Structures are given as structure tokens and as C-alpha cells.
């Protein structure tokens, strides 16, 4: 991502576009200076006690080091973990749920699924709303949208009084069949607002108007649970940016890989719960397209977790049902699988003497022992230091110096308990981390029905390059591609992301030529809704409208999403839609029934407003063998070997070298195992190929 321009370029009239992503340990910055195309990057340690303070620190450092001018910022896109951390830590709002009388157990019953069906010790998570805060309101709407019993407003008034007395901060209203007719929810919401103006209220149909009461209710609950913290955080963010002189309206990355403005983020909080992980995949997709890579497995390792996603045809994959902590998210999102293994994951020995890694993390404070910030327990990062892969240069743009003595002390305590040498214990920590990632990636590949040997691994995040090549080798993958600045790919994702709004309508109809007018009408209504949404975001140019339907064979319990072409709705026949459903069903399940009757459940539309067109400079490759900066001892699993250390800044397009080797740079360290050939391409990506 490097270019060449004087540091005072911004002061000569050029504008800046800035992508920012806050993780558990670092906040990442990716700033584009428009005149030259130069990209500046930075990482700053987070401040858990004051979320957002690190943003001001980063802006000041960018101005000092790179000539960044806050007053000429024309695009500011921000990804944050405030929402998801609120759920994981269970520090959200105290809520009440108003639902139909007789259906008060909807969130406890859920779908009667256990998180891990093969575990004898598995338990279902406690709901985010306790049973005493769920109130049944006499009211009933039929599935066809006709009302049989209007809401009992006296019961609503009593429930509001009890909820307030019990300390409720907000109320969620979720009634049966509100996807068909939201009038009852709207009338009850209006009554609550009148009776208790100090409480916030969300109705399920306004958050996500989808069939199935549990999915609709749980999505609205997640939105309300994080609302106060997200809203206050975004208000403080707007004030801080204003005080810093940033004129650009802040935009937020969304779970679906797009962006929205901060004003909407305060209301539609549920849309940004997976913003950080989605941004990483969007950034990786953009880099993959630039490099001409068609099939990518992404590996994003931060301080707390490792996230995996598939990029096929240069595009991220989307789905629903992603887990937010212990709860499924039912709105469209970039499909990401996560596991609690990151650079800060703590290694421990359990009561049976078994070495374990994660999911507990040291975070940014106190952090791994080697950071010298008070951490005393061994982490994956400490194990990398003990083995010799890490600790040969400053980290995080000069903000961290690795203390190898502290790392040896922390890992040594575990080694003493296990009765093994320190290096072997460190290697065991790394092996466990890689094996846990291996299991999660195999699940992902099986669900998607892909052969990972046909994919290239793209590691990013601060820890991705440290372990990525070892994971790729275990998976039998042939190639690894590390971008020039892997540590800030998530911030880059926000920089290049499109505006993207998702809209849904349940129509529940057999698929036939007779049903096409209703389908067309639903899509036309969604298309107008999408255009209005883009206009509210400040986008008035041409929009891309993507259509799809959730469909199933009549008699099936669940549906699959099928992508549609607009002309299929215009030609007056349903044959093309039927064939698309059969093909999709065959692809997913290796089975289809040409004679089976098809049912259409939901129509979906994604309205996309193109983000900024960016391109990074390319350089012709010159075949040259890279010269190492020095050589150093590394424990490679069996013995200590002397390996080459390369400075990423000195590796030019066409540079080649062999593993084992270590590549150091400002935002991460790349550990390269034996049996690999490394080459730098014209985009400054570092490509690894494994010997057969």
C-alpha cells in the first residue's frame, strides 16, 4: 500500500479518506491521501476504560507522522466492537419484552437447539431478558394479517408500570404475525411512548420484519440490548471528531460488509454487531480482486479471536444466523466463523494436567507478558517469542518493545508444571492454537462444500501472519498471500466499502405464474425503500439493486436463498426462478426434485451505493534473490535452526527467498516455515508456495 509523497501533501489541497477499526487490543488506521494515492497506516493500543480515546491519539499521530489534515477529511468510516462486547460481557440495557399473552416463553424456548449437541456438559445461554420482565398482552393477529383481538391497553399500562418499577431502561414489542401486519405493534409502541417517555422502545417489525417469532424477537432484543451503549458511544464519537475539526460525517461499517451513517447506527444498532469482522473480509476481498485471486480463505487473528471466511469469485459470502456471543443474528451478514484463539489467548494447565489455550484473553491491558504492561500469564504471543519467531523489532509502529525475558518467565511457569523444556512448551501452545483453528476451518469448508486445496490463504490482523503459514500447511493448502499491510486490512475494508442496505418482506406464497405479480409488487416496494435509504445516507447516484428469494419445497421446514435476475420477473413466467431454485438446492444438498412444488417465503433486496474507487500503485517485478538483514536462532518444532530475517521494507517486487524465515514490519511479523518458496508480487503482496 506504500506510495511516495511529501508529508505535507494534505496541506496543499488534497483530501483524506480514513478507515478506522477498533479491535480488542489495537485500533487500526488506514488513511488514503487522494491526490497521490498514498496510503498511511497505524496501530494504537486500545483504552478499554475509555473507548474512543485511542481514536484521538491515532489522529494526532497520523498528523504528526504522515501529514494527515483532519480538516480535509472527506470520508470517515469506523468499525467498532462496542456492540458485540456489550453482548459478550452481558453489560447491556435492562429490557422488558411485551408479547402476546400465552407466548411469554418465546425467547426461552428459542429453537430447542443446544449449542453443542455432542457435549454432556453443554447448557443453553440465559436469555438477555429475564422471565419476570416478559409481559403477555392480550392481543391476537391472524397469519393473514386480520385482527381478532385488539391489544388490551389497560394491560399495556399495567405492564409499563411494572417494567418501570423493576428498573427497565427499554421495552421490546414483539407480537405474532407482525411481519404480515405491524399495526398492533405500532399501537402498543405508541402507548408505551406516551406512558413512559423516558424509556426507549423498539418494535420487532421495524427492526427486521421477518416470519418466525423467535428470530424476529431475538433480533429486536439484540438491537435494544446494545442501544444505550452504542448510542452514547456514537454521540461521543461525533463530538470528538467535531472537536478535532473533522468535517466528514462519520460512517459505520455494518455486519453485511457495507456502511451506514452514525445517526442510523444509533437506532439500527443490530446492523453493526459484526462490523469489525465483516470489514476485514471486505478489505480482503478488495485485495484479492486487485491481485487476481479468485478463491481465498481469510484468516484474521487479533488479540482475542481468529476469524475465518471464504471469498469466492473475488466476493465475500453472505448468510444469516451468525453467532453474536451465544446468540444467533438473523439479519444478513458476511459469513464469518470465529474461535476464541488469538495472539493474547492465555495458555493454562487444567486440573488434569492438560495444556489448554484460550478462550480467555489478556487483551490490551495487561496484554501478553512480553508486552511489559503487567501481564504475567503465558499467551500465544509469548510462545512465539520463546520459540524465536517474534521479538526482533519494535511492534505496532514502534509502540511496543518485546521483553523476551518476561515471555520466557511466563511460559517457564507452565513448563515447570508440565515437566517439559520451555521451548517444547511454547511449541505445544502454538500447536494447540493451530489445531483448534484447523478444526474450525474444516467445519467451515464442509458447510460450504469446498476443497480448501483449491484456495489461497490470506492471513491478516496483527496475528494472522504469525500463524497463517503453519495453518495453511496443516490444511494442505498450496499458497499463502499476505498483503503489504496485513495489520490494517479491517480498516482498509471500511475505506473501500460500499453503502449497503438490506430489506426483506415475507409474502409466503406458492411459486407459480399467478404469484409473480405479488412478487413483483414486493420487489418494487423494496426497491423504493432501498433508494430512499441510500438517499438518506447522502447517496443520490445510480444504485445497484440485488434481488433474491428465500424458497423451499412445500413441506420443508427451512428455506434457502436463491439469487434472482430482474428480467425473470418481467417475462411473466416462473420457469427461470424454478430452475434457479433447483440448481441452488442441488449445489447445497446434492439433490433436487424437478416435480416438487415450490414455496416462496421471503423476498430480499440489497441496495448498494458504490464506495470510493481506489487503486494502489503497481511496480514491475525484477527477479532478485532477497538479502537477509541478519540471521537468528528459531525453535522450529524439533530443534533450534538458524534462519534468515528479512525487513519487509527492503523486499521489492520480484524478491524471492526460501523458508524457514522471519519477515518483520511495522504492523506484524510473518513466520515462514521450512519447505516454502516466498516471492513478492507487483502489488507488494508476499506470496508463499509450499513444496509438493
Describe this structure in words.
The chain has 692 residues and is an alpha/beta fold. It contains 17 helices and 36 strands. Strands 13, 14, 15, 20, 23, 24, 29, 32, 35 and 36 form a 10-stranded mixed β-sheet that branches. The longest helix is centred in the first third of the chain and has 32 residues, at 213-244. The protein is globular, with a radius of gyration of 26 Å. The two termini are 31 Å apart. 48% of the residues are buried. Residues 1-12 have low confidence and may be disordered.
Low-confidence segments, given as residue ranges, are 1-12
The largest pleated sheet is described as: 10 strands, mixed
Helix/strand-derived category reads: alpha/beta
N- to C-terminal distance: 31 Å
Q: Enumerate how many helices there are, as a single number.
A: 17
Amount of beta strand: 25-35%
The residue-averaged pLDDT reads: 88
Anisotropy-based shape: globular
* Total beta-strand segments: 36
How large is the radius of gyration?
Answer: 26 Å
Helix content: 25-40%
Topology, element by element:
Elements: E1 16-22, E2 26-33, E3 38-45, H1 53-66, E4 73-79, H2 82-88, E5 95-100, H3 106-109, E6 134-137, E7 140-141, E8 147-149, H4 153-165, E9 170-173, H5 183-195, E10 200-203, H6 204-207, H7 213-244, E11 250-253, E12 259-261, H8 262-267, H9 275-291, E13 295-301, E14 306-312, E15 315-316, E16 318-319, E17 322-324, E18 327-329, E19 333-334, E20 337-339, E21 345-349, E22 355-361, H10 380-387, H11 404-418, H12 422-448, E23 456-460, H13 464-475, E24 479-482, H14 489-496, E25 499-510, H15 516-536, E26 544-553, E27 560-564, H16 566-570, H17 575-589, E28 598-609, E29 624-625, E30 630-635, E31 640-647, E32 655-658, E33 661-664, E34 669-672, E35 676-680, E36 686-690
Parallel strand pairs: 1-4, 4-11, 5-6, 5-9, 9-10, 13-23, 23-24, 29-32, 31-33
Antiparallel strand pairs: 1-2, 2-3, 7-8, 11-12, 13-14, 14-15, 14-20, 16-19, 17-18, 21-22, 24-36, 25-28, 26-27, 26-28, 30-31, 32-35, 33-34, 35-36
Helix pairs in contact: 2-7, 4-5, 9-14, 10-11, 10-12, 11-12, 12-13
Domain Hydantoinase A/oxoprolinase: 216-500
Protein name: Hydantoinase/oxoprolinase family protein
Domain Acetophenone carboxylase-like C-terminal: 518-683
